[in-house]
Structures are given as structure tokens and as C-alpha cells.
Amino acid sequence: MSERSEEDVVMKEKLLPKVKQVSKCSYCQANSAESLKTVPCLECGSRCHIDCIESTARFKDKILLGDDFFHFKCSKCTDGHEKFKRYHLSWVDVVHITLFNLTHNPPIRPGGSHDPTGQFSSSENGPQEYGDSRIYFHYKADVARFIDKHWGYFWTKSRGETWINSASSALSTNSTENVPEDGRFESGKAKYNKNGMWALTDDLRFPSSYDSLQQQKTRTIMYSFADDGSLIELRTQSSNGRRKRRTEPASQRATARSKKPRASDAQAYGTAGATYSTSKRGSRGKQEPKNDWSISMWPDIDNPQGPAHISREETHSAPQFVIGSDRLTVWNDKGYRMAKASHGVESGAWYFEADILDPVRPEFNVRIGWSQISGELQAPCGCDVFSYSMRAKPSTRFHTARGSFYGEDYEPGDTLGVLIYLPPLDNDEKQDLEIRKWHPVERYRQFTYSRPASQRPPFANSELPPLPVLAGSELVYFKNGKCLGPAFQKLYLGKYYPAISTYMGGKVKVNLGPTFKFPPPATWHDDTPIRPITDLEFTLPTQPAKPEESEAIASTESTAATNEPEAAADKLETPPTMDQAASEMSGATTDKQEEVQSAADQLTTEQPATEKTNGDAALETEKEASKLTTNDGNPSVVDSSQDAVMEPVETKPADQVPAPETNAPKPDTPAATDDTQHSATPPVSQMEAATIASTKDTPPA
């Protein structure tokens, strides 16, 4: 075995026992007792300055305070060949190093009101002092945030789903409550009823000083260092010098290899081989991916007509969501689900607001962001490659089920603004989105989206989806009008919808525009105007007037169009809101009633006057009333040509109801055809029929 290989393979039994340390650097001969960045030599015991060690010259600034978990031998003890490698770190080591650095090197000391780095918790306004001269930090907003930022400094392993719980367990297990004689950490909850707050028992004591002699002997060398300070994992050997082999039976190894991925992993990355299907979007089949680099997707849908709202369609929202009558207020009583808006965007700068309302349950949480149509509905926004979100507490951004701390916590009473910027698309990107669209003549089902394997980047792994990346795209959040900076950049190409996920009673009211509580900037990158989601609304064109309508109606419409051309143009250019649409429908109904009344008066006046006795008039009135009433007492319209009673007018649209028989000729007048009867007047409502009947019974003056 070569000399280099022997250095890379280290056995546990060859580690040296702890020697007596000397507070003097073997390089500069200066006292190192006051320095917080030193490491002891395993041969001579000299505690040397990190800055003096030649092996760390290129990355000495990256080494954290109080961290001396290194296998180090100085140049004097190795004839000029220093050895500097990283020991394996436990969770208690990592948590202790974190609190040590937060305590000795905070950007702002306690009492400061400004936190430019966003390092400390907004709920406690950074580090806190409660009367015992210790500095306390929040285990999630401060400790976990620091670990997340320096993850690659401690390990090369990936983050597990419960890594924050592991950090919390290390704090409580090694607290003075559980280890009274030599506990490392002080609990703010136990002493001052401050939940989640922790401090170092002795902030001058190095984390390694808590190791027993046995722990020093059994520490394993895990990593060497690259020139930039990144970790390089080393191979390990057993005590007999042979590589360790797996001892489980072959059948168990085969079973282990054939295990399917967990549902959470498959959902997180939308991998092609995933077999999960928890979304209830109707009986839509699945097509198994046929390309090595592919992903299953749902077809995009065109934006609907009418006002933008939170959609109840099973393609957009989980059935467990409660959507208010305003179609903007949403909440969910149990685990995370997702609901999306009715309208989506493909390019441009778009903005919406989310007001955080009082929750239904105290243990609530909320995630707000953007999602494509393929985003999983039975999971939180940000769980897969198709969605991006920001969580309320602690403030965390999520994509592909991986979170990292971002921004500030938001709570009931706050308003979160969400801006997405998607740059202009080129022809290839437009064509890509076009082929994803659903054609109504086809069954709505999943399809396999794939790209040639030759286009796959050489560094790509099985978790990387084949979706194109939009260069220059980004997602930005605003809290009560304050910009929190970009949360995500280089988004995947797709059509995105405003998305809300709530947990255990979290309640949100969405504002899709056009006016906002905290208006965003007028423009974004390249002077792109920021637009509200309501700009996506559109309505059907106005139906042309029928030629059979009377001259009075045509004259009235012509006069209105002549006098108000600008108002008509505004109505065509600007989509009406829900309230405006309802008002216009009400006004149109009133105008139609007046027009029918005018036509009825004109027809009644043109009929020949017939002398009637009071008895004849009363008898005819009684007959007309019987024709307009069914057996159950509901008003109906009678077609005399068929001698049959139609359905109640109130249950049919006006344009489907035939005209009443009030204008039928007298027995001595030539009978009119059915076509003449139905085209003499436009369709009438129940109220209009009664009005025309009463007009006919009144003799002309």
C-alpha cells in the first residue's frame, strides 16, 4: 500500500491518547490561552493557533471558534509534514460549536434593534439575557439556522427529515436538568419559562473539554480537507487491516436493494419511478415513464373565464380544504394540503397578497407560494419540484421538500406579499409549454415529460428532473410591505398558480388584486410592470342584438351607444369584477322589463276596441289568471298552440321561455301562426307575464 493510501485509511486503535496540553503555540511561541481558534498537537500537546498552521493557510478563516475536533500533529513533531484531518462529529458536538459561535461572535449584541444578517429569531429579537449573565438563543430560529448555513462544514451527509429534532434532543439530553454535575446547556424554559431558548453553561469552555478519555480514544477520523476547506470523506478499516464486509445474508441484501422509495422521497422529487398517487383528481390514468430522464406531469389547463379566485376544481385544490363563499378565504382542519388559484401565469411579473387570519386551532401553520398544475395537492406547497413556498413559523423556504431559513416569521395580522418574475420566453420555451396543454377532446390524464438522455448534465443525479430552468426567474416575498429579498431563483419552466397550504386550522384570505394593502413596486427587472392576478380575468364578447327586436329597443340601444362610446370601450377593455357583473345583470333585467312593458302597451293600443260588459271583463280576467297558475300554485306560462303547461319560469333561463298568450287575437280576428306568436315579443319573466296580463284586461282609453 502506498504512503498516500496509508494516510487515507485510519484505524480507531491507532489514535493517540490525550496528552497534557500546553498553552503555548509551537510555531510562534506565543501564549494561546486567550485564543478561541486553537488546536492541540497530539504529540507534544502544544495548543497551536489555527492561523499559524501551514495546512490551514487557505481555509483558516472558515474554521469556527471553539472547534478543535481535528487530528493534528505539528510540523516539529512530524519533521515538517503536518497532519490535519477532521474527526467525526456527533450532534452534541455540532450544537455546542454552534452555541459557542453564536455567543462569542454575534453580529448584534443583546439589546440591538437591527439585525442586518437575519441570523437571529424575530420572535425574541435576537439573543436574550434573562438575569444570569448568559446569552440565550432560540433552538430553531437561531441554532438550527446556524447549523443549516454551515452544514457542509460539519458533514458531507445529506439532511434528514428530522435533523432539527436531533439538534433539539442533543440540547435537552446534555442540559443541566439531565446532567446536573456537568451539563453543557442551560434551558430558558426551566429557569425563566422561555420556550425554546438555550444558553451555554460555561461560554469559555471548549466543546472538546467535555470529552472523557475514552471518548478521545474512540473518535474516528472521517475527513481530509481540499484546498478550499471542503471535506473529503476517507475510507475506514477494521482492526485487522481488512476492509469491512457486509455480514447479512444475500436474501436480505436483495430485499434491501429492492425496497421502494418512501412516499415522501418520491413526492419530494417527482421521480419517474414513483408509484405514489394520493391526489384525488378524478379517474385519471397514469403512464409509466419510458425515458431514462423523464418525469410524470399533469397537463396544463387554460385560464377560465370570469374573476380570479381560489378554485374548487379537483385539479387545483384538495377536497379537504374549506373555501369560503368569497372564494378567497381558505383553511384546512388537519394536515397539510394545497389549494391553488383559478388563474396561472407563464411569463411576466405577477403579485398577490395573503392576509394571515386568526387560526381555527392554536397549533396552526401556513405555507404560501406558487405551484404548477402538477404540484401535489395532498402535501404542502414546496414538497416537490413543481412548487415553491415560505412557511410561517419558523420562517423557512421550501422546494423539493428541503427547507432552509429565510426572511421573518409571519403570524395572524400580517400580510405576506408574493411576487413571481418569469422572464420573456423564447420560441423553444413557448413550444415546450404548448405541448403540455390539455386538449378537451382527450381524456385528462398524466403524461410522461422527457428529454433526450444526451441533454442530461454530466453532474446530474437521479433526483434532478428534466425540466428546463428559466434563467433570471425568481420568487420574492414581502412582509407588511417590507421586501425580504429573493427566496428562490432559476425556477423551473412552467405555468404557475398562487398556492396556499395550511396546517391544523391555519386560515388565509387571498387578495388577487387589483388593489393591495401594501402595493408592490411599479416595475421589476428590465422595467417589467408588476401586475395583479386579476389582470388575467376575461369575459365572453357581448351577444349581437336580434333583428326581430322592436324599433323602440333598437333606438334605445343606438342612443346609448352614441352618447357613451368611451364608457362602452372601457367595459370592453377592463374585465368587470364580480360586484360590477352582478350590478350590470341587475340593470339589464330592469331595462328589459321596461322594453317589454313598452312593446306590450303599443300592441294593446293597436288592437280594435271591443265593448265589454263588466261581467264579460271579470270572466276573461278569471280565465287569464287560471292560465298563469299551475295546480301547485306556482306561476307558469301556457303555450296555447300546444295546450300544455310549461315549467315554472323561475327555473328556466329567460331566453328559453316562450311568450305568454296575452297578445293572442280575438275569436273574430284571423288566427296567427305559432311563429308569429313566439316572435312578437321577446322572452319574458314571471313578473313581466303578470304585467302584460293586467295591461290586456284594462280597456284602452
Give short descriptive properties of this protein.
alpha+beta; 9-stranded mixed beta sheet; 6-stranded antiparallel beta sheet; 16 helices; disordered N terminus; disordered C terminus
Walk me through the structure.
The chain is an alpha+beta fold. Helix content is 24%, strand content 18%. The strands form seven sheets. Strands 11, 12, 14, 19, 21, 22, 24, 25 and 26 form a nine-stranded mixed β-sheet that branches. Strand 21 (474-479) and strand 22 (482-489) form a beta hairpin. The longest helix is centred in the last third of the chain and has 29 residues, at 578-606. The protein is elongated and about 80 Å long. The N and C termini lie far apart (124 Å).
Report the count of strand segments.
28
Q: What portion of residues is helical? A: 10-25%
In angstroms, what separates the terminal alpha carbons?
A: 124 Å
Which descriptor suits the 3D outline?
A: elongated
Structural class: alpha+beta
Structure annotation, total helices? 16
Backbone CA Rg:
38 Å
Largest sheet: 9 strands, mixed
Give me the secondary-structure topology.
Layout: H1 3-8, E1 38-40, E2 47-49, E3 70-73, E4 83-87, H2 91-104, E5 137-138, H3 139-149, H4 151-154, H5 163-173, E6 185-187, H6 188-192, E7 197-200, H7 213-218, E8 221-225, E9 231-233, H8 250-258, H9 263-269, E10 294-297, E11 322-323, E12 329-331, E13 337-340, E14 348-357, E15 365-371, E16 387-391, E17 396-399, E18 402-405, E19 415-422, H10 427-435, E20 447-450, E21 474-479, E22 482-489, E23 497-503, E24 507-511, E25 523-524, E26 528-532, H11 551-563, H12 565-573, H13 578-606, H14 614-627, E27 638-639, E28 644-645, H15 674-680, H16 686-697
Parallel strand pairs: 14-26
Antiparallel strand pairs: 1-2, 3-4, 4-8, 5-7, 6-7, 8-9, 10-20, 11-12, 12-24, 13-23, 14-19, 14-24, 15-16, 15-23, 16-17, 17-18, 19-21, 21-22, 25-26, 27-28
Helix pairs in contact: 2-3, 2-5, 3-5, 13-16
